[in-house]
Amino acid sequence: MALPKQKELFSVILKFLSDGQEHKMKDICDYCAEYFNLSDYDRKIMTSGGQSMFVNRVYWARLSLKNAGLIESPQRAAIRITSSGLEELAKENGEITSNITEDFHIEEAQSPQERIDYAIEQLKSALADDLLTEVINMNEYDFEQLVVDLLVKMGYGKPEENKSAVTKKSGDGGIDGIVRADKFGFDAVYTQAKKWKSDSRIQSPEINKFLGAMVVQGATKGLFITTGQFSKGAIETAQKSPAHKIVLVNGRQLAELMIEYNLGVTTVKTYEIKRIDSDYFNRDD
Prior knowledge:
Elements: H1 6-16, E1 23-24, H2 25-35, H3 40-43, H4 53-67, E2 71-75, E3 78-81, H5 83-90, H6 112-136, H7 140-153, E4 177-180, E5 188-194, E6 201-202, H8 204-217, E7 221-226, E8 229-230, H9 232-240, E9 245-249, H10 251-260, H11 278-281
Parallel strand pairs: 5-7, 6-8, 7-9
Antiparallel strand pairs: 1-3, 2-3, 4-5
Helix pairs in contact: 1-2, 1-4, 2-4, 6-10, 8-9
């Protein structure tokens, strides 16, 4: 049997999740394979990146459903249906309506280059989503170390200058890390790292506490990173103090920075796109 298309997997995945429990992706893949009566040969067909093509489609279907708010990922490699997913499943005799796939629809009018660019953006979005899930599952101290590692990757000092950048787990005075950009510590970035749920919002009191800790330390540069989001009030509070520069980074921005600076990710495939070298063909005799 031919491998099911991504849109054909939507309703099957939701049916499997209709019990409302958390399920591992492996179990979902096995269920879908059995539902479509796939052979071992079908499941072993590989993409150019070395992944099972069938598993790849299941994972992309999962992301599409998650973006549509029909499923959620409460922990690593596990998903469950949402109330919106149950409502959608009850419609159309369990067939997911076409508007759910709009986020992944590629117009036929697009050029091959546009399709490649679109696919790359979707791959980055999927990676950022999975990466944030991994980060949320870290313990607090490791998360604080991750923030320091990211700053070093971004060029704020060298690893040997920041071996003790993460402060003690208790009694840190509201400062989670101090990244020194030079050996003498004349230029330093003070960090606060809050590992909260991705839909949680940091409010202005948290920013005020961080600002107070910076004042006590005599710091002028602060970085507040969270796996959640910032409220409008928190953003305004961070911008109020003229004597202190506080940069806010939310969960999505954190994941994108980790991808950009190759922290916690690895390259699995590189593609080359070539074009005509006009200079070669237009050489003067």
